[in-house]
Amino acid sequence: MAFLIDGLVGAVRLLIGLNPELLRIVGVSLRVSITALFFAALAGVPLGLALAVGSFPGKRAAITVLNTLLGLPTVVVGLLGYAFLSRRGLLGDWRLLYTPYAMMIGQFVLALPIIATLTLSAVSGVSIRASRTALALGASAGQKNRLLLGEARFAILAAVIAGFGRIFAEIGVSMMLGGNIQGYTRNIPTAIAYETAKGDFALGLALGLVLLAIALGVNLLLQVFQGKPE
Question: What is the pLDDT of residue 138?
């Protein structure tokens, strides 16, 4: 019990003192995850919209693949990413392995199916009503799609927030593609594992508290957007 109390006291001191190493680690986590989330939303929202309103061969198969990818283990993404980005891999000449860019790619792959699938569900829930309104007003296809996105905007924001929650605390991709390099690719989950293993329980606990605080904030935002009337 004394060990836990001492660690907690040390963690609070690090947080209050704005420990530089702690801030660097948090900065890497936020920079990597927010960048990955931005591009995942940029691709996932249009993909979900296209699957909701489009009619084309292979649509059902595409939806099945997206639903399957929702449960994709992070270590599998890390393994596949390593196979492509290592020196002997297809993209080895790009020298992305053990860089923040490799971590962004892995997190993008994890967030994309979540955002696309939840966008598909959100747009499908309003598509019939909104489509009839748009057609009655003589709207074009582009105008109809914008109307659908507007009607489902809170649910789509919730989808993006859920994508962030999926990638921010993951460790498999970060460890395998980032390499846990101090001051460069070490983020909150990998640092917690490393610092705890080497006996620096206070820093590991401080980072855990930051991770819990951000996770709580993300979930509160998610609850707010899910509770918004559309």
Answer: 65
CA angle 70, 26, 97 (to 5 degrees): 60
Q: Do 151 and 130 touch, CB atoms closer than 8 A?
A: yes
Residue-range domain boundaries for the chain:
28-226
Q: DSSP letters along 72-100, please? A: --HHHHHHHHHHHHSTTSTTGGG--TTSH
DSSP string for the chain = -HHHHHHHHHHHHHHHTT-HHHHHHHHHHHHHHHHHHHHHHHHHHHHHHHHHH---TTHHHHHHHHHHHTT--HHHHHHHHHHHHSTTSTTGGG--TTSHHHHHHHHHHHHHHHHHHHHHHHHHHHHHHHHHHHHHTT--HHHHHHHHHHHTHHHHHHHHHHHHHHHHT--HHIIIIITT-TTTT--HHHHHHHHHHTT-HHHHHHHHHHHHHHHHHHHHHHHHHHTS--
pTM (global) more than 0.85: yes
pLDDT means per 10 residues in the chain (230 residues)? 74 88 95 97 95 87 92 92 93 94 97 95 76 65 78 89 92 94 94 88 91 88 66
The architecture CATH gives domain 28-226: Orthogonal Bundle (1.10)
Residue 230 is predicted with a pLDDT of: 46
Which pLDDT score is estimated for 111? 96
